[in-house]
Amino acid sequence: MFLLVLSSDSETSHDLNENLTMVPILKSSISGLSSVSRNTEINEQISNVSSNIESNQTIYHTQTTINDYFIDDINSFQLIRDLNENSAKFCIRCKIIYISPIRIFGTNNKVFDAIVCDSEDEIKVVGFNDDVDRIYHLMTIIIENGRIQKSNENYRTAYSLLEIRLVTNTNVQLYNSNSFKPNIKITKKTIHDISQLVNGSNVDTEGEIINDNGVSTTTSQINGSTFHRRSIKIQDETGKINVTIWNKKNEEIPDNVINQHIRIRNGKINVYNDYVSINVSDRTIIQLY
């Protein structure tokens, strides 16, 4: 029994010695792990401090406006007033304020003339054949290049001696801009002074629309032609006057016009039984604002 115990103790002692031998190794490993853990923690703390330092640094930004990305298109256009007979290359933006009926001449050749204006001035435009179809139904356009020459004095506009002839290298495009608001030029007469004019006189005026009777249709008993007319009343600081808008010119007037202002150029005075009114026809230029 004793020997067996010794043998057992010897094995136990051997196992114990092995276990005791492993203790420093385990301690060393644990110590190493602890050191690694501490180093990792220190590194994380250093990283966090570095990150905090970076996040607390003042960052300066250069402010960029929208104009740095988009060219101001106003600077890319010339004004009508700057055009002359030597202006072979130019680019203007303008609104068509008058356009004539299309006329046929020669062998199926077409021609039209128009008046265009920008914010300050106006000029006549003449187009032939393909140009008629290209721009006849446009309103606000860009005209690039053309031939500028003096207009025939019998057909020029009241405010320009020149005209633009659309030629082969002329480029015409539709132009859309909410900020571009051209105004037609007029030689204004007050409503009080209009009452002194004779029947058939041409007149320019403007005023606030205070009454609108709508569009009515009349059929001629002579040839059966149909006429559309719209009767409105306008006022300025000197008085009131009735205005009759005829036929296709009504297409330029929206349904609701009360309290809007209208500018009339080349209206026609109508006097009937001492009652004075203004007729607006195809040759009249009008603008609502």
UniProtKB/TrEMBL annotation:
Tagged with keyword DNA-binding: yes
> Which molecular function terms from Gene Ontology are attached?
DNA binding
Q: Name one Pfam family in it.
A: REPA_OB_2
Q: List UniProt keywords, sorted A-Z.
A: DNA-binding
Give start and end of each Replication protein A OB domain: 191-274
Return the InterPro entries for the record.
NA-bd_OB-fold, REPA_OB_2
Q: What is this protein called?
A: Replication protein A OB domain-containing protein
The record lists the organism as Rotaria magnacalcarata
